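In the lab's daily routine, each protein ends up as an entry in a very long ledger. A line of letters takes care of the sequence, but it says nothing directly about the fold. The three-dimensional part falls to structure tokens, numbers that each stand for a local backbone shape. The outcome of that step, for a single protein, is printed below.
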Amino acid sequence: MQIIRLGGVPEHFNMPVHLAIEQNLFSNKDIDVQWVEFPDGTGAMNKALRAGKIDIAIILTEGITRDIANGNPSKIIQNYVSSPLRWGVHVDAKSDFKSIDDLEGKRVAISRMGSGSHIMAYVQVLEKGWDTTNLELVEIGTVDKAIEALADKKADYFMWEHFTTKPLVDKGIFKHLGDFPTPWSSFVIAATDVFIADQKESISAFLQVLNAVTAQFKQVKEIEKLVAKNYDQETEDVHKWLSLTTWSQDQISEKELEIVQKRLLELKMIDQIFENDFFLKKI
């Protein structure tokens, strides 16, 4: 049985993977998918891909694109969630901030350099017309550390996926000032070049199973209750999230990848625009 070390964040977007593992859908195809969780997100996953500690990652589009451009020996093998990620913009519940516009020139907590929270903080600053050279980053790691950083006034705001952080808003820990959706697909699936070269058939079988699950995910009996239970969500929030979320079974479009690259170049996070096949690999 071929082992696949699969990295991902502990968020509801990855529920289809866990269903497939629990129902032995991968093992039925002679694949042992070993889930490796990354609570501190994309930056940590990129590091693990580079080090060969995981074979495949379900990872933020902008994060893996930036890292491949900067030397990560991996490729995007498929799109995963084609709908935008809704980045919630959060401050400490006791702060005086009332809107996103109040955050110009303020300190932003990010999980890691190169993470989605890092890149999207800059994308938001750029789109708001603020000075990108005036953005102070506070690297904190996990969401729990972000709670501490905002409460201790070591940072002013924190951007993380809307529904993942909503329980913290409901509990009066964070105040939600608004959302900033990505201008591109949320998540893609990336694999290391070494694993692609050695295990193309296993990757193909993995994608076939996962795509079959994601295509039917919204029709799973009582899926809203299941997601709510597993991810500490309210059922009505899961219902809204599902209505806003679309899983893909295709490769990300070249046009979309070009948009990501242009924005990253504008932010000086990559040095040049590459041909799309520098990032993409057909399985």
The radius of gyration is 18 Å.
